[in-house]
Design brief:
- The protein is of the alpha/beta class.
- It has two domains: 81 residues; 145 residues, Nucleotidyltransferase, domain 5.
- Helix content is 46%, strand content 15%.
- It contains eleven helices and six strands.
- Strands 1, 2, 3, 4, 5 and 6 form a six-stranded mixed beta sheet that branches.
- Strand 2 and strand 3 form a beta hairpin.
């Protein structure tokens, strides 16, 4: 596991809306199943599915969190209808993301695993909030040293920043508990996995080793052999996922204003699709 030079990409979606519509139309024709693209009364809609998809990506690109505020920018766009149509595209967005995974070359040596919090309310309302009761709970955000109510997104990212897959759990779920299930669902070809101190533990390392993966995590400073084990280059590569999460936050992955589980997943899928699309446009032109 001797490193290596790493080229980083900013992954900003720098494309005009007309070009974005053409891109979305291409992916819609490639990924949409016949029962969806030829559903009843589809020829009577004034706004096509591919245009709705382009508008959703454009909203994420501009960083507008409120869907109602985004619809107000277009006098002829009804918020309720736009919201309903966008939720219908959830399965299609997932299919497009899977198609992109097949076409992107992920021949890098490493994968990086980490998680980021998705609070759904302010911390002062943690114990009286009613939304997502039974699905979300209270977790701890170590970077800001605060407790929050909401979810946690666990993601696998390539060493140059492509989001391969993700999973959503309650905020209190430990990072290591979701790792094995996420790797089973993803089946990445890369065999080396980089994580932070939250993934320390012999049990997790042994489970991943049985699956054919080697997990590297830095040791805490007070652990024996920390100076020798903590390779600076590997630690620098692992920290690049934090930059990726910052861009996902800009695309509204963390500031999710949905009030239903379907809407929550749809907005998260759009944020990740926007990010991966920016990655592909920037790297592969």
């Amino acid at each position: 596991m001797n490193c290596l030079k790493l080229k980083r990409f900013s992954h900003h979606l720098q494309v005009g809306f007309k070009d974005l519509v053409i891109i979305c139309r291409y992916w819609y024709r490639l990924s949409a199943p016949a029962e969806f693209s030829q559903r009843r009364n589809i020829n009577q809609v004034k706004v096509t599915d591919s245009l709705i998809l382009a508008l959703l990506i454009w909203q994420a690109k501009t960083g507008i969190e409120s869907q109602r505020r985004f619809c107000e920018c277009f006098g002829c766009l009804s918020h309720s209808r736009f919201n309903r149509r966008s939720r219908q595209l959830l399965q299609l967005i997932y299919q497009i993301r899977q198609k992109m995974n097949q076409k992107v070359d992920l021949s890098g040596q490493f994968l990086i695993i980490d998680s980021f919090p998705v609070p759904v309310c302010q911390p002062v309302r943690n114990y009286r909030v009613r939304i997502f009761r039974g699905s979300a709970n209270i977790g701890y955000k170590a970077t800001k040293k605060i407790y929050y109510y909401g979810f946690k997104v666990h993601a696998i990212v390539s060493d140059d920043g492509y989001v391969l897959d993700y999973a959503v759990t309650r905020a209190s779920v430990h990072d290591a508990k979701e790792t094995v299930e996420l790797m089973k669902n993803t089946h990445p070809t890369n065999r080396y996995l980089l994580g932070d101190e939250g993934y320390l533990g012999k049990r997790l390392h042994d489970q991943l080793k049985q699956m054919g993966y080697e997990l590297w995590t830095p040791y805490r400073k007070n652990m024996a052999g920390a100076k020798k084990h903590n390779d600076r280059q590997l630690m620098a590569i692992r920290r690049t996922i934090e930059s990726d999460f910052s861009l996902l936050t800009y695309y509204n992955a963390e500031n999710n204003r949905a009030r239903s589980l379907t809407g929550f997943q749809a907005r998260l899928e759009i944020a990740i699709l926007t990010y991966n699309l920016a990655y592909c446009l920037e790297r592969f032109n």
